[in-house]
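Handout, page 2. Input:
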Amino acid sequence: PQDSGKLDDPDTIDPSQGYGIRFQGQKLKIYFDVLKVEEIKTWDGEDLEFPGLSEDATCSYIKIEYPSNEPNKALIIVIPESSLKDQEGNPLPYPWDAFIYEKNKKGKNWTLVYDNPIPFKFNGLIMNIHGGSGSSQGEGEAMEIGYGIKDEHVARIMGRFTLVSRGSIEIYGDLIYDGVYNKLNELGLLDESKSIPEYLNEHGEAGRNILNELVSETNTIDMLNVVSLRRDITLMIAKNDEETEDYTKNVKLFGNFFCFGGKFAVQHPDVNKGYRHVFGSITARELTYTFTGSYDDWQGWKEYNVYDDRLYNNTLLPFGTPQMREIIILSFRVM
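Output:
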């Protein structure tokens, strides 16, 4: 997509060539989820056709909303699970067979820009970068992440992806790898009411062993890189209008976070938000505090970080994984 928000001419897409997605100067809102084809049709249109896929085929679903002018627009990428991994669950190399389509929104209604999804090969890279002077603050190139389809503030990620923004990146909910989603749900850790330290206090060494194996080659092939080239990556305060639900309390973030020009930060609240859990890695040029108060009575998020050693041991890293030079690796534990 170019500045206009229009997908390049679909007739120019070479089905044998691997592609990433690049936006230029748009503010993006990115959703991740895992849906069956029949669910995708329910959301996006009963007439959609995905050649070679049955109605119950499971897919990685990525929706990228980018408001330009009216109507609002969204780009949708659908990757069949069978493209991402083999029958034994082993990861398949990118680029993956995928489908892409675009929708317009006017009022409450969405309409397809093209008649049907376009087959293409996707390498997992989504960039939001625009040319300009070095003094640009990148305010129009921000990304919002932490959104899902079934649960608006739980992004369920199947596959290996790299998100790159020259502007800021804001997180509004959980980022959960599909390979650990069911296990987290079974442990009661998808609920924002419980933190990992609370779980460990209840289950002791047995609980620690379970969490040690949570992010491993045998449990998940999924990985997410989140990269801001010039600005901060910030965990946001996210509540519903009635403030009865707190979507980022005890938030769980699975991913590798790279802040080359700013901080891995939080929007500072005046209430206790539990813990900010990161399963992955954080690299940044600047450190920042996440809570105020005492150890037992605090406002904001205390930190609980678990290192994902696949970042260095796995040869099938997401396309576009940054090379780390002259950066600080923040405090991480291997439990």
